[in-house]
Amino acid sequence: MKKFYFVFFISFLFFSGCSSKQYFEPKEIAGKVEFDKELPAKMIDVTRDGATLENGQVITEEGLLDVKLPQGFEFIGDGEEYIVGANNCGDIVIIDKKSKKTVFKKHFDLKRASAAKIKGDILALVFDTNEIMVVDFKKDEELYSQKSDKIYSVDTKIASPYFLGELILFPTLDGKIIIVDKVGKRAIRNILVGTEKFLNNIIFLNVLNNRLIAATPNKVVSVNPKNINTINIDLSDILFVKDAVYILAKDGRVIMTDPDLNILKTRKYPFAHFTGIVYGEYIYIIEKEGYIIATDHSLRVSNVFELSDKIEDYIFTSKDKIFYKDKFFQLNKK
């Protein structure tokens, strides 16, 4: 009899636990939002800076480009004139946005390029082996490379390299930023962002005015000429605009800080699971159960709008559009 009670108790805990998962349920819905415009094909891959459609077309912050990657290639980065694609066989291609022609193609053994950025003739690459590389693609010449510690996971939202004058800021997959002097062809500084053994990719990197903001899934760092400030937090996304940083925490909080990460305001949306954020006339936050939370820039007032679908697949946000599956809609922008 005691054994029966024990088994019943364990079963009760198990099934209670399974059924007790809670979801974001807004008290008021301000309206509905429809994905009312169609893409020429479904999105099959999404990165921090772009998305790839099934037909090879690419979406970036500029919107849908009339350029196609070769079959089997996915978008990993861009520049003013070019887009960069990679496949799982170690190949990369650079395609001119205007001519739509391939201007560079290269194969790398035993590694796949995961993120890229181009400025002028210089291509900056981050590989899934946690190696960084600087290439003059016009001359097909490797200028610098460095391999960091072994990593155990690669996030689809890994940040792209960032060009800052003569410097290139490389986000690594083990929680560092390596600053490379492209003229001197050498690394001049490392900035440690995260220290976790797993899920420690740099998923956000941006520089505005004299602040560098970077983040892993567990930590945000702000670097200015005088000091380094940090916030330890489990986060799903981050936005850095003008004088504010917006952090989407995995516990349903939206945290607004100044560029030095001093907390200015926090709003809690119970059980919310955020999947993206866009800055426009309002701050638009996409929630996984199929909602858009529109809040003013100071997080004082917010309205919740219902989407036509739950977010169960890839989603990409550009400057004024939200893309999902094979559809999108346009937001109000200032």
Segments where pLDDT lies below 50 for 5+ residues? 1-16
CATH homologous superfamily grouping of the largest domain: YVTN repeat-like/Quinoprotein amine dehydrogenase
Judged by helices, strands and strand pairing, the structural class is mainly beta
Q: Quick one: how many beta strands?
A: 33
β-strand percent reads over 45%
CATH class of the largest domain: Mainly Beta
How many structural domains? Answer: 2
- Please state the average pLDDT score: 92
- Remind me, CATH topology of the largest domain? Methylamine Dehydrogenase, Chain H
Distance between the termini: 69 Å
Shape designation:
globular
What is the CA-based Rg, rounded?
Answer: 21 Å
CATH architecture of the largest domain: 7 Propeller
Biggest sheet statistics: 8 strands, mixed
Helix tally?
A: 1
What percentage of residues falls in helices of 4 or more residues? under 10%
Give the neighbour order of strands across the main sheet.
Answer: 10-9-8-7-11-12-13-14
Features:
single chain, 334 residues, mainly beta, Lipocalin, Methylamine Dehydrogenase, Chain H, 2 domains, 8-stranded mixed β-sheet, 33 strands, disordered N terminus
Overview of the molecule:
The structure is a single chain. With 334 residues, the chain is mainly beta. It folds into two domains: 22-43 and 237-334, Lipocalin (Beta Barrel), CATH 2.40.128.630; 49-202, YVTN repeat-like/Quinoprotein amine dehydrogenase (Methylamine Dehydrogenase, Chain H). Helix content is 5%, strand content 51%. The protein has one helix at residues 2-19, and strands at residues 31-33, 37-38, 43-46, 51-53, 57-60, 63-68, 74-78, 82-86, 91-96, 102-107, 113-119, 122-127, 131-136, 141-147, 162-164, 167-171, 176-181, 186-192, 204-208, 211-216, 219-223, 228-232, 235-241, 244-249, 253-257, 263-268, 274-279, 283-287, 291-295, 302-307, 315-317, 321-324, 327-330. The strands form seven sheets. Strands 10-9-8-7-11-12-13-14 form an eight-stranded mixed beta sheet, with no helix packed on it. A five-stranded mixed beta sheet has the order 1-30-29-28-27, with no helix packed on it. The longest helix is centred in the first third of the chain and has 18 residues, at 2-19. The model is unreliable at 1-16 (pLDDT under 50).
